[in-house]
Amino acid sequence: MFTDNLLGSATLHTLEIMVYVIVLQVGIALVLAVLVDNISKLKGFYRTVFFFPVVISGTAISLLFVLFLQL
Length: 71
Fold this sequence. Notes:
- By secondary structure, the chain is mostly helical.
- It is built from two helices and no strands.
């Protein structure tokens, strides 16, 4: 593995993509958080709408595990 010429370039490409994803995700999340925090009307509704996918994905995953384990 350490004698492979592609290992170094693949590792650098992976780290580069990781940095881009982290910077963009944190940046977009920060902008959305500031925008939602500045809303005066229906602030709770918008917070719920943005947090809803997090709750739904966790619920769906747990339901799938329950269904798999019951079989």
